[in-house]
């Protein structure tokens, strides 16, 4: 059972009224769905037939009386994080599937965009899908690899600020190495003079990628 607070989140309908794609925005640690939904006005005019949702993290943030998280980072032991991501990815999948059913869409019509911890969850979620997503974009994240890479079909775009002081830019190189290992179609962009953030350069690169790959 998914709590109602998780199923209630910001969303924006497609500008042209023709909902052909679902874009799922996954926020960073300690934030919530209201954060990334603010990006929609900057990209929706180039993604006219996309319906945007920005779910709140499936857990309350551990280290503040506000905010959400996709999984706890209090214990950063790799196997512990892997288990937490695997467990909570099931809840995220249910959130996405519920909206897909409402819109009469499937994974092939679904685009995942994540930031920081949202990228970690988004990449993991993508790699374990039996039915591939249309494409995935990850900003300023790192890889939490599943025990088995099931989906090798979905194109992946990773974008990272060179000056990131929260998630080091070397994390992007690790993601690329993994994608190359499994011959997964990917694009990447290291953005000069950018810290742990999303800027217009990254958004435009992401939109171009989506319009190229999510046909």
Describe the protein's topology.
Layout: H1 4-7, E1 11-12, E2 21-26, H2 33-37, H3 40-43, E3 50-53, E4 59-60, E5 68-69, H4 78-103, E6 110-115, H5 117-127, E7 135-139, E8 156-161, H6 170-181, E9 186-191, H7 200-213
Parallel strand pairs: 2-3, 2-6, 6-7, 7-8, 8-9
Antiparallel strand pairs: 1-3, 4-5
Short description:
This protein has seven helices and nine strands. It has 215 residues and is α/β, with parallel strands linked by helices.
Keywords:
215 residues, alpha/beta, Rossmann fold, two-stranded antiparallel sheet, LYPA1-2/EST-like
Task: Explain the overall architecture.
It is a single chain. With 215 residues, this protein is an alpha/beta fold. The radius of gyration is 16 Å and the shape is globular. The protein starts with a helix and ends with a helix. The protein has one domain: Rossmann fold (3-Layer(aba) Sandwich). The mean pLDDT is 96. Strand 8, helix 6 and strand 9 form a beta-alpha-beta unit. Helices cover 35% and strands 18% of the residues. It has 7 helices and 9 strands. 39% of the residues are buried. It has a 7-stranded mixed beta sheet with strand order 1-3-2-6-7-8-9, with helices on both faces.
């Amino acid at each position: 059972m998914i709590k109602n607070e998780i199923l209630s989140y910001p969303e924006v309908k497609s500008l042209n009224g023709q909902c052909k794609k679902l874009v799922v925005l996954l926020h960073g640690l300690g934030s919530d769905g209201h954060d990334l939904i603010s990006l929609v006005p900057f990209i929706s005019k180039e993604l006219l037939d996309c319906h945007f949702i920005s779910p709140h993290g499936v857990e309350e943030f551990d280290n503040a009386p506000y905010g959400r998280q996709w999984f706890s980072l209090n214990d950063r032991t790799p196997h512990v994080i892997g288990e937490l991501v695997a467990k909570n990815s099931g809840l995220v999948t249910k959130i996405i599937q519920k909206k897909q059913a409402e819109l009469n869409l499937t994974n092939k019509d679904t685009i995942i965009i994540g930031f920081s911890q949202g990228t970690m969850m988004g990449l993991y979620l993508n790699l374990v899908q039996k039915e591939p997503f249309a494409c995935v974009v990850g900003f300023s994240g790192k890889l939490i690899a599943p025990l088995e890479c099931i989906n090798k079909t979905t194109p992946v775009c990773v974008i990272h600020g060179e000056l990131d002081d929260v998630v080091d830019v070397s994390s992007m190189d690790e993601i690329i190495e993994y994608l190359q290992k499994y011959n997964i179609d990917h694009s990447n962009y290291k953005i000069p003079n950018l810290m742990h953030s999303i800027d217009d350069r990254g958004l435009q690169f992401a939109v171009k990628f989506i319009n190229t790959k999510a046909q």
